[in-house]
């Protein structure tokens, strides 16, 4: 699996750019705010089905700032901090086009976002209905500074990691998860209005149980299988990285049968009514990470947390290769600079013979000087240096 060419138009701060990637290490460097992360985000759209840093597609559309209308009155000037207001002028759309190749051949995908928040998607010239239709063909592993939250963040962060990684490998998983979460949302709406609901409305509560139990069993089985594989790889990566001195472990104990979930939902019925929400199920599950038998969230140093998060992402790539027969594209957003030289060298050695797109504030790291392709980001322009 490798990305061949990325074309951007009016995407965030990038007016227009075209990048042809090598099959090895591709470095994009430049100061903060110049377009490096925007470029990685654009590539990742085709793996995740949407931009990972926004909930509204209109934020993807490039804006320029022009002088605004003259201010009227002292109060308006005071509210503006004594400065002339600037009006943001948005382009009509943003376009992202990616050519890539996997074991089944070449493909061309496109993503368009309009300034009114709408979007459209094309796969090999055919319009697709939603971001979910992208997921599973182009596969990528993204690691950004925010992914430190995989270790030190709350359970929802680790659930999201599961869901994104598994969805790229199992086309049925995303559908099952979507149906389950939709039922939970509908059930919660009923529970929130329970005391003012009619008896006929209350009778609908139990109708959600069979469907939720069915989907919950599938979701937790998939998560359990993934956690077992990830645990194996994370242990090996950290052991190799630290010469066996650090011993992490991943544990997920949410797996249950459909019958088990039916009994649990029935048993928790009154508690759910009292609390006005669905209190158990895959949407509440936890993946625990320990180091030396202690919770990594509380006892791991920042360096250990970063190493475990990186190991999880490397594991994601290995599981993808194991199940799909080829590595995904690795997208690393300015995460090597804070590692010590030994861990940095180890991470780069793990990425041999894989396509990697890395961003960095400087083109100075020894590990990056030998990059196959180098691009400079400056003022929303992405220029190939070599």
Gap between N and C termini: 22 Å
The geometry reads as globular
Number of helices: 13
Radius of gyration over alpha carbons? 24 Å
Mean pLDDT across every amino acid position: 88
Uncertain regions spanning at least 5 consecutive residues: 66-74, 82-88
- Helical amount among residues, as a percent range? 40-55%
- By CATH, the topology of the largest domain is Rossmann fold
Summing up helix and strand content along with how strands pair, one would put the structural category as: alpha+beta
Query: Could you give a short account of the major beta sheet?
Result: 6 strands, antiparallel
Strand order of the largest sheet: 2-1-6-7-8-9
- CATH H-level superfamily title of the largest domain: P-loop containing nucleotide triphosphate hydrolases
Tally the beta strands.
Answer: 17
In the residues, how many domains can be counted? 2
| Secondary-structure element series | EEEHEHEEEEEEHHHHHEHHEEHHEHEHEE
CATH top level label of the largest domain: Alpha Beta
Strand residue content: 15-25%
Instruction: Supply the CATH architecture of the largest domain.
Output: 3-Layer(aba) Sandwich
């Amino acid at each position: 699996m490798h990305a061949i060419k990325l074309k951007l138009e009016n995407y965030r701060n990038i007016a227009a750019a075209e990048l042809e990637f090598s099959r090895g290490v591709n470095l994009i460097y430049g100061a903060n705010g110049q377009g490096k992360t925007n470029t990685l985000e654009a590539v990742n759209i085709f793996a995740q089905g949407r931009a990972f840093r926004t909930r509204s597609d209109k934020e993807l559309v490039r804006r320029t700032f022009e002088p605004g209308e003259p201010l009227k009155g002292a109060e308006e000037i005071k509210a503006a901090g004594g400065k002339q207001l600037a009006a943001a002028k948005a382009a009509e759309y943003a376009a992202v086009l990616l050519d890539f190749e996997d074991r089944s051949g070449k493909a061309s995908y496109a993503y368009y976002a309009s300034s009114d928040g709408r979007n459209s998607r094309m796969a090999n010239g055919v319009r697709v209905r939603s971001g979910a239709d992208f997921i599973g063909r182009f596969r990528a592993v993204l690691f950004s500074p925010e992914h430190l939250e995989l270790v030190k963040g709350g359970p929802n962060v680790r659930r999201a990691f599961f869901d994104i990684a598994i969805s790229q490998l199992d086309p049925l998983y995303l559908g099952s998860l979507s149906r389950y979460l939709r039922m939970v949302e509908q059930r919660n709406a009923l529970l929130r209005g329970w005391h003012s609901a009619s008896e006929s409305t209350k009778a609908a509560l139990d109708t959600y149980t069979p469907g939720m139990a069915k989907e919950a069993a599938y979701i937790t089985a998939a998560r359990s299988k993934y956690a077992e594989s990830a645990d194996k790889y994370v242990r090996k990566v950290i052991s190799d990285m630290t010469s066996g001195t650090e011993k992490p472990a991943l544990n997920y104990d949410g797996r249950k049968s459909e019958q088990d979930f039916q009994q649990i939902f029935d048993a928790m019925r009154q508690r759910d009514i009292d609390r006005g929400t669905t209190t158990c199920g895959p949407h509440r599950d936890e993946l625990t990470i320990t180091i030396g038998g202690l919770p990594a969230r509380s006892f791991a140093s920042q360096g250990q947390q970063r190493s475990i998060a990186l190991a999880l992402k490397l594991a994601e790539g290995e599981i993808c290769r194991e199940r799909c027969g080829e590595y995904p594209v690795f997208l690393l957003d300015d995460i090597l600079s804070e590692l010590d030289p030994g861990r940095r060298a180890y991470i780069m050695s793990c990425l041999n013979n894989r396509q990697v797109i890395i961003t960095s504030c400087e083109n100075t790291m020894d590990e990056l000087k030998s990059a196959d392709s180098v691009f400079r980001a400056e003022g929303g322009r992405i220029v190939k240096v070599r």
